[in-house]
Amino acid sequence: MKYIISAFAITVFSGCTSIASNSVYPVTRNSSPSEAQFTVTKVSRKIIEKTDIAGSDEELRLMLIDFPPEFSNVPHTHPVVGLCYIIEGVAESQYEGEDLKTLHAGDSYQDSATKKHLLFRNSSETDALKFTCAAKIKKGQEFMQPL
Question: What is the Cα–Cα distance from 129 to 123, expressed in whole angstroms?
Fold first, then answer.
């Protein structure tokens, strides 16, 4: 019986990740956003819940993102505001015209839709960074858009 329940749980959780994606983005490792040294690293970006907004072409989306150690996004923008929360790890974030911010597990922050997101990285050499973001966004639109 235990094995049947385990198999069922694996099947259910596998199905839940059908809307998940492991995205490959060019990223910098241990470098500033102005440096041109890039490597390719996998990041897990999963839509863990979404619901249509009646009468529109938008949806409310809850995303779960995992960055491996030392992962750094390329400069990018967000088409809409995101409300985000650090679950585990330490992130460094910098928007155009703002100072570098350090965010720890338990911190919340907003991803701006009006500024270039010059830097967002996992500052740890050994630990993963896990965070969630919620946004009202057009169906099918990517939340992170590389510059």
Answer: 9
